[in-house]
Amino acid sequence: MDFQKEKETVRAYHAALDRGDFTGAAVLQSPDCLWRGYHPFNELTGPEAVNTRFWAPLHQSFRHLHRRETIFFAGLNEMDGFASTWVVSMGHLVGLFDAPWLGIPPTGRMAFLRYASFLKVEGDLITDIAMYFDIPQVMVQAGLTPFPPSAGAELVQPGPYGQGGLLYDAQPAEQGEATLACINAMISDLGTWQLGLPLEEELARTWVDDMTWWGPTGIGATYTIPRYAAQHSGPFRAAFSDRSKTTHVARLAEGAFGGFFGWPNFTVRLTGEYLGRAPTGKVGEFRVIDVYRREGDKLAENWVFIDMPHFWLSQGVAILPDDG
């Protein structure tokens, strides 16, 4: 399969959304299309609900909204036995932030909403969408401080090294298979944090030495295995216990790019200090999208989207202004 028909459907859907043509976008979706988005949107059913609740208000707040896509690929979903086709898009939605959004004050300047989406295409229609986005990053751009200073770098994140992430054309099947194998090896090592190796040695099994991990606001981006271990992976593992088994709704790859999402991916109990906040002893969900770039036989880059407002609400902490 070359997935070109499915890619064309998603590109047409995005083009309609980008010009504010919600009717045109709706005809490319099934009436019962499930849309999974971050808090406070969560699950919505049908294009009318999604357009009314999410897209129309976003266009009203971010004038001249447009999409700066940096990664685009498609593939068969390993999680259902490679039966369904999904298309993945990642980048930023950019506009003039001229009206409040979710209680975040407008800046009158351009603003970037970092996003990643997985779209299931059946026939001529999109039937399932997961769209995750970094709302706290918009808060930072507006001068708010949803989290204390992070260990990683906080910035508007670029696309992949080499700028080769837009796979609009068909790719050799063996390249996607190699990428999916790398991702699965990493997942197998990750397990429940019980591989038994020192953390940096564990990571070196599936990551290049100068890996880049593009984390969400509050955690930040890190570069190289030692800094990733020190600035994210180590502190994350130290703060949580009772990690559940990882579950994914979709996992796929094409060319040198691949990724997955879960709803949620896993649950954990906050038993240590994390991001400047004391342990609660409560279990919380982590809704995550991961997008990867492979280099040779290892992973080189990882863009990570975590629904931090949803997790922290489960711990009794309000992140978004409207939750306060």
Name some characteristics of this structure.
324 residues, alpha+beta, 2 domains, six-stranded mixed beta sheet, 15 strands, globular
Named CATH architecture of the largest domain = Roll
| Total strand segments | 15
Elements, N to C (H/E): HHEEHEEEEHHHEEHEEEEEEEH
How many separate domains? 2
Intertermini distance? 48 Å
Query: Beta-sheet strand percentage?
Result: 25-35%
* Helical segment count: 8
Percent range for helical residues?
25-40%
Q: Could you state the oligomeric state of the chains shown?
A: single chain
Mean pLDDT: 96
- Uncertain segments are none
Structural class: alpha+beta
Q: Using only CA atoms, what is the Rg?
A: 19 Å
- The neighbouring-strand order within the major sheet is 2-1-6-5-4-3
Q: What summary fits the major beta sheet?
A: 6 strands, mixed
- The CATH topology of the largest domain comes to Nuclear Transport Factor 2, Chain: A
Description:
A 6-stranded mixed beta sheet has the order 2-1-6-5-4-3. A 6-stranded mixed beta sheet has the order 8-7-15-14-11-10, covered by helices on one side. It has a 3-stranded antiparallel beta sheet with strand order 9-12-13. It has helices spanning 4-18, 22-26, 47-61, 135-141, 173-190, 199-204, 225-239, 308-314, and strands at residues 29-37, 43-45, 62-76, 85-97, 110-122, 125-133, 207-214, 221-223, 240-241, 250-254, 257-261, 266-270, 283-286, 288-295, 298-306. The model has no long low-confidence stretch (mean pLDDT 96). The chain folds into 2 domains: 4-141, Nuclear Transport Factor 2, Chain: A (Roll); 173-323, Nuclear Transport Factor 2, Chain: A (Roll), CATH 3.10.450. The protein is globular and about 55 Å long. It is an alpha+beta fold and 324 residues long. It starts with a helix and ends in a 10-residue tail after the last helix. A hairpin with a 2-residue loop joins strand 5 (110-122) and strand 6 (125-133).
